[in-house]
Known about the structure:
- The complex is a heterodimer.
- By secondary structure, chain A is an all-alpha fold.
- Chain A contains 15 helices and 4 strands.
- Chain A has one domain (2-334).
- In chain B, the strands form 2 sheets. Chain B has a 6-stranded mixed beta sheet, sandwiched between helices. In chain B, strands 2-1-4-5 form a 4-stranded antiparallel beta sheet, with helices on one face.
- Chain B has 2 domains: 1-82 and 167-246, Rossmann fold; 93-165, no CATH class.
- The model of chain B has no long low-confidence stretch (mean pLDDT 87).
- Classes of the chains: A mainly alpha, B alpha/beta.
Amino acid sequence: MLIRKYPSVLIFLAVLAIFTLVVTIMSQAYGTGAIPTSTVKLFGKTLCLALAALAMDLVWGYAGILSLGHMAFFALGGYMIGMWLMYARTEEIVTATLANAPIPATPDEVQQGIAGQIFGVVGSTDLPLTWTFAGDLKIQLLLVLLVPGLFAFLFGWLAFRSRVNGVYLSILTQAMTLALALWLFQNDSGFRGNNGLSGLQNIPGLTDVPQSTISIWFLWASALALGLAYILASWLVSGKFGSVIRAIRDDEARVRFLGYSVEGYKLFIFTLTAMICAIAGALYYPQAGIINPAELAPIASIYLAVWVAIGGRGRLYGAVIGAIFVSLLSSWFTGGKAPDGNLGFYTINWVDWWQVLLGVAFVLVTLFAPRGLSSIIDAVAGLRHPMRRGKDLGPDLGALREKEAEA
Amino acid sequence: MSDLLEVSGISKSFDGFKAINNLSFSIAEAELRAIIGPNGAGKTTFMDIVTGKTRPDEGQVRWGETSRSLLKMSEAQIAREGIGRKFQRPTVFEDQSVADNLTMALKAPRGAFSVLVWKAGKASRARVEELAAEVGLAEQLHRKAGELSHGQKQWLEIGMLLAQEPRLLLVDEPAAGMTLAEREQTTTLLKRLAETRAVVVVEHDMEFVRRLNCKVTVLHQGAVLAEGSLDHVSANSDVIEVYLGR
């Protein structure tokens, strides 16, 4: 049923599988070594960003909620897994050091050692209450879902119940992510202030496994998560649920009079996408190696919206294509690899000019290709959109009916 | 016969302007009723209050056998109770097919989780086809609602209302923008619907109201001015002065 309605699911999964396979056989760990480990990590991280963009497309492109705070959930997921990575890794080191002491260390001493190692940088030696479960991977993995999920639920419940809509809701979500970032920046909030969590690429218990291998494992995990989320998202939008959320996007008052609780649906999709973002973040930051409160800056969430807009919102593959295309291009330009543009009188340094280029691209796409990059795919697939320009299509057989309008 | 909807003594003012002023109204289980009145008489505000979009400053709105108050309920809850509303301008979901529009309106559990696991079955598909046939859109099932003509959109919206199986139907100016033949069809449909449920028609057009041949309530300045058959209210001197005389 799902496949019949959305044949793109199969194509997407096939492309994703082939990509993962090709990277694997060209990697240093499992193949020829043509692709350096840093590039494998870049690919893995990009897949995580694509996963976040997929969630953004669900919440914005389908349900019409322009959230400019979803990267906060992404970062929260990263923080939750980062806590375990840092704690468990420090525990290994501290235990190894204390093993040389003449008297065996008590658990209290071990914990104090860990706290001193982690929080010495912000002038504290006590483990904050928030780190109570940091040593337990299972609980911390659960918190990856629960903390952002609960946070999104409470925020959404307050906002949607008061019927905050449109641009006001966007501003509110920005305020939320900014407030969270400012809070995390404080040294005494228990997350190492502006130092953030670091050394996340070292996986506890896998110290002997080289980074080249770990990077491939994370690539697989990221690809798997993206594939599963894509199936879930396609299933969500294909049935009656998809109909209802698209209807909410287009005319929410009418949906209310049909008897659907609009607030409940918005809350559901907002919380679900927050949790998908959190999973993406939990896979991203071990590959990035470091997370700090700057990751929650509002600009990060705006980028997410830009990716989805450039890729094409209201299309699941559009979001993925947009995120991959723009973020890879972005790292190419800002990584200093792009040749400088020599105009004779002025040399364009792309590190500086990339933002301008992205801004112009965003404006152009919004004006001339509302479906973004996915309109290329639409053109190939022969889909056409009704260009009614506000008018009705013709009432009778002779008039323009745009039968071919599938999208 | 007991009343299905009983509105008593409601008032609502917007910035000091009394849109509804101590209005009382009731309608029985299977009854067709027309509400007429000049612009600003409070027709739309009245419908907003019944459907939960607007809360009255005072008064009561009671519903059904148990006379439950509707004032504490949200729009969605009221709709689930069985009050359907047809807007003046056709509001269908233009981006989705006729079948999707009808499926969404079908009477079924409305919670997010039940909708998530809901699957189109033989029964629901047959019902959608039946509804589409009833409103003359059987051939258009897979077209986008946005491609339909104005009249067809009106019919689709009526089909969606039927799919909801409401016990009370509030219809705002159904004849607006319809051709003569379409009006004829609409009159027949409304009359037939009123055999099994309550139907309230808000209308400007006296000719259309005459065709409905039902009890008429005349609103003026937020209150009921007269009530009775069309001939009866037409003879009322107050009504002639404020509405018909002009």
